[in-house]
Amino acid sequence: MIISSAEITGLIGSYLWPFFRIAALMMAAPIFSSNFVNVRSRLLIALAVTIVIVPTIPNAAPAVEPLSGTGLLIVAHQILIGACMGFMLQLLFNAFIIAGQIIAMQMGLGFASMVDPQNGVTIPVISQFYLIFVTLIFLSLNGHLILIQVLAESFVTIPVSPTGLPHTSYRDLVSQASWMYASGVIVALPAIGSLMCVNLAFGILSRAAPQISPFSIGFPMTIILGFAIIFVTLPTASVHLVTMSDQMLQMIRFLVRPYG
Fold first, then answer.
1. Alpha-carbon dihedral angle through residues 11, 17, 20, 21, given to the nearest 10 degrees
2. pTM attached to this predicted model
3. What residues have CB less than 8 Å from 190, skipping those under 6 apart?
4. What is the spatial distance between Cα 137 and Cα 18, in angstroms, rounded to a whole number?
5. What percent of the chain has pLDDT over 70?
6. What is the rounded distance in angstroms from the CA atom of residue 208 to the CA atom of residue 242?
């Protein structure tokens, strides 16, 4: 049995090009890109997903030398596509981080912060609580499996080629930042309204009874009522997550939609 160099190149390319897109997604997507998941584990996960997805991809490898100029251009485009898909899912989790920051500032717990092990930055404790809560619900809903399914569909809508995403897709990606901030405000809106009424009540109390110091009773009461509001509104956060996850996955599908 004689195997030509063209067949070897095609076999390597059929797994190499999709691997770059999948690895870039694993490096950018939440949960997979967390600091407690080391780089070696991400690469092994990307390699395992590549082995599973590639047999289902029609025409996965163009007839291009891997070390040629066109081959390097294909690598760059695959990395950009995977990173953009992972970044869009990051916007979903960051919306809840923003919601937690808003609630923490309203409660007076903005100073209570800790290091986020997923992103390696300092965020309020309330944001960390929402992030853990959202991550567990996302995994329980098999969101990571749906993400892999969307990734496999992207190889059908945008096959491996030297063209990649058009410039309009990057513009759409930037415009999703407004969606992130708007979604964070929507999640935190019940707490914002309730705590505003509490602060307004303490303001009226301080005017009606000046001898009562609002700082002595207002600060602990705001924190207690803030936790009570979080407890009451927590089921609605899971509903928001399901709706927002569906919206974001549809946005990712729209990002990698076929053109022309």
1. -130
2. 0.80
3. 229, 233, 236
4. 29
5. 82
6. 45
